[in-house]
Amino acid sequence: MTLEQLAAQSGVAADKIVAYTKAGLLPCKDEHATFSADDQYWLDMVNCFLENGSSVEDLKDLMPLCEQCAAS
Fold first, then answer.
1. What are the boundaries of each domain within the chain?
2. To 5 degrees, how large is the angle CA 19–CA 6–CA 28?
3. Which residues contact 17 (CB under 8 A, 6 or more apart)?
4. pTM of the predicted model as reported, rounded to 2 decimal places
5. Is the sign of the CA dihedral 32, 35, 39, 41 positive or negative?
6. Predicted local confidence at residue 54, as pLDDT
7. Residue 32 pLDDT level (bands cut at 50, 70, 90)
8. In this structure, how many other beta carbons lie within 10 angstroms of the beta carbon of residue 9?
9. What is the DSSP letter of 27?
10. Is the pLDDT of residue 50 over 80?
């Protein structure tokens, strides 16, 4: 799906998705690439962490660990 489609489906603004992607918080590391359902799952997780008080800086360390655990 495109960035715009992901934004519409997730309810997260496209500019925020771009910022999260550039920060390395999503498995898709290029905001111009096609996003998958997995990216939407991770976006939901990032959004949940942020809504509950985590910072983007906190998540820069945490999300790669989560991705590694999910891949195992």
1. 3-70
2. 55
3. 3, 6, 7, 10, 26, 31, 43
4. 0.86
5. positive
6. 94
7. confident
8. 13
9. S
10. yes
